[in-house]
Design a protein that fits this description.
With 84 residues, the chain is mostly helical. Helix content is 77%, strand content 0%. The protein has one domain. It is built from 3 helices and no strands. The longest helix has 30 residues, at 54-83.
Length: 84
């Protein structure tokens, strides 16, 4: 069975970005929620800060979409190469 590299990468990106967006939006309502989680990602993604702003929530979501999309595509490509 082969994986679609584009579909798997897109699915991974959407799932990870959705999770990051949910944590960031809940953090806007309750500042203590997910603070350590967001601080980790603010140390990895440039321009993202662990403050409670909509800009940071959108930026971490876009970075997550791109980051996990690339990671998922690489995983699917590697799986297809090794499964043959």
């Amino acid at each position: 069975m082969r994986l679609s590299v584009k579909a798997f990468g897109f699915a991974c990106g959407l799932i990870w970005a959705g999770g990051l967006l949910c944590v960031a939006l809940v953090n806007l309502a309750w500042p203590a929620y997910g603070r350590a989680f967001l601080e980790v990602w603010s140390s990895i993604y440039p321009g993202v800060h662990a403050d409670q702003t909509v800009r940071s929530a959108i930026l971490v979501t876009l970075y997550g979409l791109f980051d996990a999309g690339i990671g998922g595509a690489v995983f699917a490509w590697l799986y297809n190469r090794l499964a043959c």
